[in-house]
Amino acid sequence: MPTQPLLLPARLDPFLSQKLRFWSLVAMVLLIYVHGYNLHPRYLQPFTPVEEPLGPGTWLQYILANGLLRFRIPILFAISGYLFAWREGAAPHGQRVKRRLRTLGLPYLLWSGLWLAALWALEQFPITKQAVIDAEISPFWPRQLLSQLSIGELLTRWLVEPAPFQLWFLRSLLVFNLSYPWLRVAILRKPAIYFSVAGLLWFFMVPLPLVEGEGLLFFALGVWLALRNADVLTPPHWLRLLPLAGLWLGVCALKTWMAFHVGPPFSLPLALSMLALHKVGEASGMLVAWFGLNGLVRWCMARAWFRWLTGFSFMIYVLHVPLVNYATELALRYGRTVPHIHLLTYLLLPLLIVAVSAGLGALLRWALPRVYAVLTGGRGLATS
User: Fold this and answer.
1) Which regions span the lipid bilayer (predicted)?
2) Which of 17, 24, 32 is nearest to 357 (CA)?
3) Spatial CA neighbour of 78 closest among 291, 270, 345
4) Among the four residues 42, 51, 200, 273, which has the most C-beta atoms within 10 Å?
């Protein structure tokens, strides 16, 4: 199999370009609904049970946050891999690496540092300090405050375990971009071996240094599709959308039922069963979303307000965590007398965060466009 650059189309198909913009935004919004989950235990894994009573609100939160919406990271990695491979040959790899250091590495360091400063400020006021403690998202549990950390731990908090923990995606993406020539060879020369190994790493959630198995699979899938110049707009002949949508809904519903009804002791077979359901839901959801929602894509991208909002996908991404975690704690603490406060917070707070993120992004882009360009890696500079 040749490894020299392949001849790819000079321009993306117009509708494909629209779909990529649509899903780049929608996946960011779905991230908030996953990270805004407010039941106990808060930390979601495929096999996380629910310690709260089953009801319409708790059921809805779980099936969304730990079921139907979990395809959002795979689709983002696939889009990133597709675009990176599609632009192959536009510049030497060394130049592309320098650009990615500016568009991925620098924003990672800056936003991690800015959130450390924001955390320090929040810790100066009793109300917000308590929200930081209650959120329990520091990797140095039970120590949740910056004032409790050593200098070395503060550096780790900045460089490796950022407060906006979703930045791991930028870190992994940067590693994949840097190692693209070697990934490309493996994907093109031994695709069966590569995807078998990457698939196992994804399925069993095997942690790898600096990257995630999930990205190793789906970034490579995007690369493979681009380099083969595959038709990614037409559903494959074997794909039947209605049965696949039924499978997606079914496995997520079954996993949700298990999370509420299967109590301790929590066995390994049970965890593996929930993991399998989770992964089937993730893959089937990605296919249904990509091939089955074209009508929604066209409707949204025909609206000027939605196209404007797509320019702030990155701002939504970098601002939503830990903002959603601390705001959730404040809402639950001071709104506990409000009926259905957990469900209302889960449904409405993400929309508020989208509005705040887009508003701050628009203000910063207008007032300080150069600063905005640095913080976003040049993303979203267009106004439409």
Assistant:
1) 20-39, 59-84, 105-122, 241-260, 266-293, 305-323, 343-364
2) 32
3) 291
4) 273
> Does 136 have pLDDT greater than 60?
yes
Q: How far apart are CA 248 and CA 310, in angstroms?
A: 27
Q: What gap in Å lies between CA 116 and CA 373, rounded to an integer?
A: 21
Spatial CB neighbours of 228, under 8 Å, sequence gap ≥ 6: none
* The token pair that represents 106 in the structure block: 């620098």
- The whole-number average pLDDT for the span 133-142 is 95
Q: What is the pLDDT of residues 174-208, one digit of tens each?
A: 999 999 999 999 999 999 999 999 999 999 999 88
Region 267-281 average pLDDT: 94
- Cα separation, 376 vs 111, in Å, equals 9
- With CA atoms as reference, report the closest residue to 279 among 66, 19, 126, 131: 66
Cβ-Cβ contacts under 8 Å for 92 (sequence gap 6 or more) = none
Q: How far is CA 75 from the centre of its chain?
A: 9
Amino acid at 212: E
Mean pLDDT of 258-276: 88
| Short-list 223, 126, 125, 233, CA closest to 182 | 223
Rounded Cα distance, 210 and 152, in Å: 19
CA distance 275 to 3: 36
Q: Which two tokens stand for residue 319?
A: 């601002």
Rounded to 5 degrees, φ, ψ at 136 are 55, 50
Q: Give the other-Cβ count within 10 Å of 383's Cβ.
A: 10
Estimate the crossing angle of helix 191-203 against helix 180-189, to 10 degrees.
110
Closest CA to 256 of 287, 277, 282: 277
Phi, psi angle pair for 76, to nearest 5°? -70, -40
Q: What is the 3-state secondary structure (H, E, C) of 203-218?
A: HCCCEECCEEHHHHHH
What is the distance between the alpha carbons of residues 206 and 198, in angstroms, rounded to a whole number?
10
- Match 């196992």 to its residue by tokens: 200
Cα 213 to Cα 198: distance, rounded to the nearest angstrom: 6
Closest CA to 378 of 283, 314, 288: 314
